[in-house]
Amino acid sequence: IDSEGEEGAGETEDAEPTLEEIEERCGRTMHKDPCDEAESAIAEGRRVYVANLSFTASDAQIRELFRGQITSIHWLNSRTLGFRGTGFLTFRSAAEADAAIALSGSKLGGRAFTVDLAAPTKPEAGSCVFVRNLPSEEWSLESVRRIFSPCGPILAIRLPKKGKAAIRFKHAAAAAAAAARDGEDRKGKKVRVLPTEELMDPGTGAEAERRRQRSGAAASANAAAHAAGAHSRPSLGEPEYRSAHAMRGGPRERAHSRQRRPRQPAAAPEGLQAAAAGS
How many other CB atoms are there within 10 angstroms of residue 41's CB atom? Predict the structure, then answer.
């Protein structure tokens, strides 16, 4: 009986810790903000989204780093992966949130983290722009924010490819002000600023739509041709049959052609032909 009790105790000790226990050991809260409070803080510009933090970051380190009066910390945790270095911070005032955004690009635990204004659940329509042809010297989160922040509060910035940036503003009017700077010259390059509905290149969606239309038209044409019998191919053994290699003119087609052609009897020499005719 004692041995069974010892085995049971061993199994209890070896049990994997829960997510709550892990977060408590790391000094991180499991608090989750109610939706109405989060939306209110977003509307007032007091809530920011932090990403790419060190996986060892704790609440105490975050409060010391940002120094502002943080009223709420809401980490994004996964039951399977745990803490992934992302979360929301709510400050007492919008000015303190702006000061936190100014620290975007700083390092904590050897990782450069990003800070953006938290976006509402349903962003305002027409609040995004896509920027092309940025000079290489100004292709960074800090430079893009510095260039376009005079247009209005920025919620998010994405850098999909070199020289390109997708920006979501808090208000559609700010996006319109940024789009009005289309064609602006920066370091000898003409910068394009295009309005878009999402944080993506508007040309990408248009090109994908053109490809879908072309493929759909081609499929319809092929279906109509097959229905009319224009593309009916003869079967193997028929005189008009040609293999796929024949259409490409490959060496295997020549071999197939030799196999399909009946052999012609060899012609007899002229002397033998004359002797056969005289007899």
Answer: 22
**Contacting residues for 65 by C-beta, under 8 A, at least 6 apart:** 103, 106, 108
Q: Check if the beta carbon of residue 163 is closer than 8 Å to that of residue 203.
A: no
Tokens of 213: 């239309």
If 0-12 CB within 10 Å is exposed, 13-18 middle and 19+ buried, where does residue 97 land? buried
pLDDT tens per residue across span 125-146: 888 999 999 999 989 888 999 9
Whether the per-residue pLDDT at 275 is higher than 70: the answer is no
Q: What pLDDT does residue 132 have?
A: 93
For residue 230, report the phi and psi dihedrals to the nearest 5 degrees. -70, -25
Coil, strand, or helix at residue 83? strand
What's the Rg (C-alpha) of the chain?
A: 35
Could you read off the pLDDT of 162-206 as tens digits, one per residue? 899 999 998 889 999 999 999 999 988 999 999 988 877 776 665
Query: Among 178, 202, 188, 99, which residue's Cα sits nearest to residue 138?
Result: 188
Give the whole-angstrom CA distance, residue 168 versus residue 156. Answer: 5
Backbone angles phi, psi at 103, to 5 degrees: -85, 0
CA distances from 261 to 44, 254, 255, 267 (A): 85, 11, 10, 17
Query: Is 165:139 a contact under the CB 8 Å cutoff?
Result: yes
Spatial distance between the Cα atoms of 72 and 32, rounded to a whole number of angstroms? 9
How many other CB atoms are there within 10 angstroms of residue 200's CB atom? 14
* Angle between helix 59-66 and 94-101 (nearest 10): 100
Please report, as a single letter, which amino acid is at residue 261.
R
Q: Which region holds residue 86: left if phi is over 0, alpha if psi is between -120 and 50, else beta?
A: beta
Rounded to whole angstroms, the Cα distance separating 179 from 160 reads 19
